[in-house]
Design goal:
Layout (H helix, E strand, L loop, with lengths): L15 H7 L3 E4 L2 E4 L5 E6 L4 E7 L3 H20 L2 H17 L1 H12 L3 H20 L8 E2 L6 E9 L2 E5 L5 H14 L3 E5 L6 H11 L7 E4 L3 H10 L3 E7 L2 H14 L3 E4 L5 E4 L5 H11 L14 E5 L3 H13 L19 H15 L5 E4 L18 E4 L6 H4 L6 E7 L2 H9 L3 E2 L1 E5 L3 H10 L4 E4 L14 E2 L2 E2 L5 H8 E9 L2
Parallel strand pairs: 7-8, 7-10, 8-9, 10-11, 12-13, 12-18, 13-16, 15-16, 18-19
Antiparallel strand pairs: 1-2, 3-4, 5-6, 6-22, 11-21, 14-15, 17-20
Helix pairs in contact: 1-4, 2-8, 3-5, 3-7, 4-5, 4-7, 5-6, 10-11
């Protein structure tokens, strides 16, 4: 471990409130906690209570420059390190994260309102899994021998790009940061992350923990707002690759800025994922799968949430009733309570957006919106951003609730009679991130899987992102892939050809 004293405890702590206060007012640059050069900070709020739990450093172009310059200096030596050794260090980081899983789970629950048992603890463990996976891939940074001429030795090698700028969202910030940072580091790049302003704490703690293993400057993190901190990161002349997860409008801005610099960009921009249920499915398994697919435990704040569910007519009414009954049984409450299934919406702005969609759906002629689960009764949570999950039926395919990404606990269920009909409706979206099919007829399932316009299609399951499975969408859902060897090779290295004339 490297000796870099910090204001935070070295050993894991379960006092998430104290840890949040200790981290207040800092970025993490060059292996150390440093304040914003402007001295500005902004509030980090617990969405379950409305209370301020910390202050985050408000980064700007000066902070970005400091972080990128440090990363650029560190990258030369990091790239010279053997790839397997880089991988071994990233794998060692995973062991440190595993020691701190409970701490990170409690910290992310505090700042995002995600339930500890059903969401936050799962995410923290997944971070370690991702680091372990990519840490073992150092040996896969291989080139090729090219049969050009017997008298000419022609080979290709994989080289890092340089400094990677990564911008992450607030819904699963630890997981999505790991998917960007781990492959970038193993490939020989250094990284500067801009965290989501709503959730800067847990990701910064991960950065600190990994910096106990990594050389200073290899992994840096900034907090701040998009125009003042994110834009300068994308535009910085020493940033040679950008990877972004977020909304489509911001993704287009990032892509345009990267295009001006002629640097590669990876974009994961969300979805409106269809779930298609045939009457021959395993009914109980499928209903349980619908709850998981819709990510109700995360208040529906997921790019892959099954927010459009198409159910074959013979089982439609039964399915809707069974799903509503299951959601009714879920407990909404204090995210840090082990009994809680469902936490909160992340922010007031997102809360109002989701509530607006729900009210619009209820006001639509012929539509029915069923509110499920009970609101928390604890008076300490009266200011919390809790919304009851809603199941809508009777909406038209052109409804905003059907076409736009709500990013809340709202799903729309439709009956269908014909496979071709439901395929057309499922593909009637600007998004193409994920989809799922539920049927015991694999001939039908595989046929539709090939024709669904989505980057990830699952049959009889809808798992969240998994290390070693290529993840990324088509259409407005983005560009490029994450979570796989392919992602590391294609998005964090470039291929160089070397020719030796031996004549």
């Amino acid at each position: 471990m490297l000796d870099r004293p910090h204001p935070t405890p070295e050993a894991p702590t379960l006092d998430q409130a104290d840890l949040a206060k200790r981290m207040s007012g800092f970025h993490f640059i060059g292996g150390r906690y440093v304040p914003a050069k402007s001295g500005k900070t902004f509030a980090v709020v617990n969405p379950a209570t409305g209370e301020e739990v910390a202050r985050a450093a408000e980064g700007d172009a000066a902070d970005v420059d400091a972080a990128v310059q440090d990363a650029a200096r560190a990258q030369k030596e990091w790239a010279r390190m053997p790839a397997r050794k880089r991988g071994a260090l990233v794998h060692k980081c995973a062991a440190v994260i595993r020691e701190h899983v409970e701490e990170l789970a409690r910290l992310i629950a505090l700042e995002t309102g995600k339930a500890l048992r059903t969401e936050s603890r799962v995410e923290a463990n997944t971070v370690a899994d991702i680091l372990e996976f990519f840490g073992g891939l150092g040996s896969e940074l291989k080139g090729e021998s090219v049969p050009f001429d017997p008298k000419v030795l022609s080979v290709t090698i994989r080289e890092p790009l340089g400094v990677v700028g990564a911008i992450i969202p607030w819904n699963v910030p630890m997981l999505l940061m790991a998917l960007k940072v781990a492959p970038a580091l193993v490939a020989g790049n250094t990284v500067v992350v801009k965290s989501a302003e709503e959730a800067p704490l847990a990701v910064m703690r991960i950065c600190e923990l990994m910096n106990r293993v990594l050389p200073a400057g290899c992994f840096n993190i900034l907090s701040g707002f998009g125009p003042e901190c994110g834009a300068p990161l994308v535009e910085h002349p020493k940033v040679r690759k950008v990877t972004f997860t977020g909304s489509v409008p911001v993704g287009r801005i990032v892509a345009k800025a990267a295009g001006e610099k002629l640097i590669p960009v990876t974009l994961e921009l969300g979805g409106k994922s269809p779930m298609i249920v045939f009457a021959d499915c395993d009914f109980e398994k499928t209903v349980a799968g619908a709850l998981t697919s819709m990510r109700f435990t995360r208040q529906g704040q997921s790019c892959t949430a099954a927010s459009r569910i198409y159910v074959e007519r013979p089982i439609f009414d039964r399915f809707v009733e069974a799903m509503a009954t299951r959601v009714d049984a879920m407990v909404m409450g204090d995210p840090l309570d082990e009994k809680t299934d469902i936490g909160t919406i992340i922010s007031t702005d997102q809360f109002e957006k989701v509530r607006g969609f729900i009210e619009e759906g209820k006001a639509t002629a012929g539509a029915t919106g069923r509110a499920c689960s009970a609101m928390p009764k604890d008076q300490a949570l009266r200011k919390g951003l809790f919304i009851q999950p809603h199941i809508f039926t009777g909406l038209g395919q052109d409804s905003r609730l059907v076409q736009e990404e709500i990013f809340g606990p709202v799903t729309c269920i439709f009956p269908f009679d014909d496979a071709e009909e439901v395929l057309a409706e499922a593909n009637d979206s600007e998004y193409g991130l994920a989809a799922s099919l539920w049927t015991n007829n694999l001939k039908v399932g595989l046929d539709l899987a090939h024709r669904l316009e989505a980057g990830l299609v699952q049959i009889n399951q809808n798992l969240v992102v998994q290390a070693n499975l290529s993840y990324g969408g088509v259409k407005s859902s983005g560009l490029g892939k994450e979570a796989s060897l392919e992602a590391m090779l294609e998005h964090f290295t470039h291929k160089k050809t070397i020719m030796v004339n031996m004549a």
